[in-house]
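Task 17 of the worksheet. Students: predict the tertiary structure of the chain below and write it out as structure tokens. Keep your answer in the requested format; marks are given for formatting as well as content.
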Amino acid sequence: MKVTVDFDITPDEVRKLFGLPDVEAFQRQMMDDIRERMMAGVEGYDPIKLFQPYLAGTMASWDMFQKMLTNVPGMSGAGAAASDATTGKK
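Model answer:
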């Protein structure tokens, strides 16, 4: 037996149903902040500097993930060779 149930519900209603917070104001504020930074730095616009405060934690976790992969047992062949080539260790 197969039972299918369809709900005709808006995303806002789903958010309220599951008790999720309304982040629309937060998203709007963040986009306004990014827009202000872009307009202030139009002459020397550097997207890396613009998004650096938002990506700092993300990049650190990515580096940690890469280090974890190079230290996995059984992965020492290619990972260790690449690590040794970049660090200059033998």
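Marker's comment: The two ends are 64 Å apart (CA to CA). Residues 46-90 form one domain.
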